[in-house]
Amino acid sequence: MRCLLPLLVTMFAVLSAPIWAKGPADKSVESEAVLGLKALQILDQRAHGIGYRLVSANAAFCRKTVPHLGILLHDLNQYGNKDAARLAHGFASNIAINAVALGSPAEIAGLQVGDNLIAIEEKLLENIVVDDELFANEKPEYRRIAAVKTMLLDAAADGSAKISIMRDGTDREIVLTATQTCASQFQIQVSKKREASADGKIVSISSTLAEYVLTDDELAAIAAHELAHNLLKHRDRLNAQNVNRGFFGQFGKSAGRIKAIEIEADRLSVWLMANADYDPQAAIRFWTRYGKQHGKGIFSASTHYRWKKRVKLFEEEIAKMAKMEAVEGRYAPPLLALDDGDR
Description:
The protein is of the alpha+beta class. Helix content is 47%, strand content 16%. It has helices at 5-14, 17-21, 27-57, 82-89, 105-108, 140-156, 207-212, 216-231, 234-240, 252-275, 281-294, 307-322, 334-337; strands at residues 65-68, 71-75, 95-100, 116-120, 123-124, 160-167, 170-177, 179-182, 185-189, 196-198, 202-206. Strands 2, 3, 4, 5, 6 and 7 form a six-stranded antiparallel β-sheet that branches. It has a three-stranded mixed β-sheet with strand order 9-11-10. Strands 1-8 form a two-stranded antiparallel ribbon. Strand 6 (160-167) and strand 7 (170-177) form a beta hairpin. The longest helix is centred in the N-terminal third of the chain and has 31 residues, at 27-57.
C-alpha cells in the first residue's frame, strides 16, 4: 500500500484552509481535491474492513455485543468542498455508502460503495430532523450522519433493517440481516501525526499512521490494540481512578496506571488478531520497525513500554496461544474472561 503516499500528500494539501478557500473554477485544485478524497476513502475502507473482521470474529468473547450491518456511511455535509465530494464519491443524495466490509450482511445483500441511502424503514432521510441537543457532542457537520447511524442501529436492533438505496438512478429496497459483533467502531482521522486512540466506543487511527503500515496485518495490529482498550473498558477504569491523562499523567501513580492498561491492550491485541485470521507476528514486525525508526515518540513515553518490551509481551502471548487448542479456529482471550475486579 506504499503507493498511497503521493495521494495522501495531495490529500493533506487539499484539506488545508487555503485549498478549500479557492473557487471551483480552479480545475487543477478540483482535481487534487478529488484525488485527496479518493485516497482518504481507500484508508477508510481498509480500516472499516479490518475493524469489522476484528469485532465479528471476537464477538463470542465480548460481554457486550451490538447489531452490525457492515456498512460505513458518509454525509455530503462532512466535506468542506462539496463539489469535489460529489465528483469523488458520486453523491446523488446527502448520505451514501463509503465502505462495505467483506463477508458482512451488507456485502451479502449486494450493497456497493457509492450506493445512496434514501430511506430507513420507509422514513425518507431527506425529511430527517436532527436533534442538535441530542447530538451536541458532535460537530454540526457530523450531526446528521450521527442521527442516520442511530436510526440504522435502532432499525437493526430486532435483527434486521429495511433500507432504500438509489443506484444508477434506480431506487431499490433491501432488507439487511444484522450480525452481532463486539461494540466498537473504527475511523480514520486526517492528521500529519502518527497516532491512534480509543474513547470507549470508537477506534481512531490517523491517516499518516495508517499509510505508514506495510500490510493489512500491521494495520490490524494497531486497530486490535485500540480495540482492546475499548473491550476492557480502560477509559472508564482510568476515569474511576481519577487518572490524569495530560502532561502530569506522565508521572507518579497516573503513569503507572496508564502503563498497566497499555500492557493489557498489548497482550489482548494479538489474541484478537489471531481470532480474526490476522497474523499476530505482524505486531512484532510493526513495533520492531516503528521502534527502531521512531523509538522516542509517544509510544515510548513513560506510560508505554519501550518497543523491545512490547515485542516480548507479544511473544509471550503468542506462545500461550500456541499451547492452546483452538475451538472452531478461535482462542478464548484470558483477559476477556476476567472480571473487572480481577485485573
